[in-house]
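[#protein-structures] MJ: dropping DUF4129 domain-containing protein here for a structure pass
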Amino acid sequence: MQRDAPLNPGDGQARDLLERELSKPAYADQRSWLERLWDWAMDRLNDLLNGIGTALPLWMLLPALLLLAGVVTVALTQLRRRGRTKRAVEQAGVLADTTLTADQLRRRAEQAQSEGDLRSATLDLFRAIARAAEERALIVPRPGRTAHEVGAELSTFFPSQRDELRSAANLFDRVRYGGATATDDDATRMRALDAALTRTRPQHTVTHGAPA
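AK: finished. structure tokens for DUF4129 domain-containing protein:
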């Protein structure tokens, strides 16, 4: 009869149990779907090349090669796009291409929205949120600050708007870097968040060791 593992294993037994658990197939494959797609395509290509040596019919070979070429093209395109997006997010901050004040950004956003340029309106409204935070001395001006960093830092001062700030940062990145289409509702909600932050008194937390 197989004995059950002890309820309180020692250090050596615990390590052995952990190693056995992590060796299971469920933990072994941590590849992304793109990596899985690439590996699958390479495996199929290898099968086809091996099949040539066994007189694989030409009418089967050509369509399969075309299919594999399409799969590889999609995978490479997605990998390049992901790499460009990541580099853009890391290198370009929210306020990297403007020196306008928060009020100037708001006016520019209003003009863009009235002209139907919802992308520019949505982006400028988030920039206005970031610039206003600098003008209120809530965050220190810093090159390269990302939308998510703006949202996270402002959440400490406006905890009741935490979810809206996170959603706004996600929207900024999707529109600016991901090619998403901004809607009139997106611009309106961004404007409402900016207005809410403007009229809300920030909560300044007391640092550890400072007098209450």
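MJ: nice. The chain has a mean pLDDT of 78.
AK: one more thing. The chain has nine helices and no strands.
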